[in-house]
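Good day; I would like, with your permission, to put a structural problem before you. A protein sequence and the structure tokens that stand for its backbone fold form the material at issue. I would ask you to consider whether the tokens describe a fold that such a sequence might reasonably adopt. I set the record out below, with my sincere thanks for your time.
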Amino acid sequence: MSTREKRAHIAAETVELLRRGSYMVNGAEVPLAAALESMRRGTTLYTPTELTTLVNALEPPAPVLTTIQVANCTTFAAAKSLVDSGLGNPLCLNFASAKRPGGGFLSGAQAQEESLARASGLYASLTQQMAFYISNRACRTALYTNHMIYSPNVPVFRNDADELLAAPYTVSIVTAPAVNAGAVRKNQRRHVAKIGPCMAERIRSVLAVARQHGHKALVLGAWGCGVFRNDPVDVAQWFAEALLADTRFMGAFTRIIFAVLDFDEGAPTFQAFRHRFIPEND
């Protein structure tokens, strides 16, 4: 069995345990039904108009000291570290497929969203909000739309090795597609100038959803820097402009981890975020 086939098999197992509402570890049943029902009830689709209204209505927060970390790890590894340090229910950004719930996770594809979908209840939340995918499929550009899905209290039940956990933990997830910059540059050149403003607006919408739901700990990352071909230096800068210069978000969060999993030689994507957010003497 190939690695992709193994991932597809694990994805099928995940879909089945979500349907069943439980799974077995070392002969003991781990219940999920109540957690999944709570997640489903709270799942919210935000339209672009609603997000614009939300962002524009924000007042500067009562500021707190914000610690920003850049880690070469997965999104859920970063989230687990926040949970273990007492910062429960962090909000994670899902680098979403605009057109398919969970991206290609059912077929064994491997990117950030697929890893989240295999390891958690996320897929059961996303499939409730097909309007998100219908709107993006109808979109005529690879800028995609500013729709977002907020999934609260998502149970995470696998580790980075795809092993089932005896004790699941909980995160919340905001699902949003980055601009597919590579496709825009190749096929829709008249829209190239919109890439930066669109990404900057979408980042602020993500942060507004975080504030709306009271999250103080976030897991962000190199959003759209893989197959969507956004420049990591640009994406790090757009996040920095929102988090460090926009009074609606400055001091709004206690801990932020940029989880930037980078296996390339020299880790250029990781380094782009590290250089932007971590002082040289640290």
Q: What stands out?
A: The domain at 42-102+130-277 is CATH 3.40.220.10 (Leucine Aminopeptidase, subunit E; domain 1). DSSP finds eleven helices and nine strands in the chain. The chain has a mean pLDDT of 97. The radius of gyration is 18 Å.
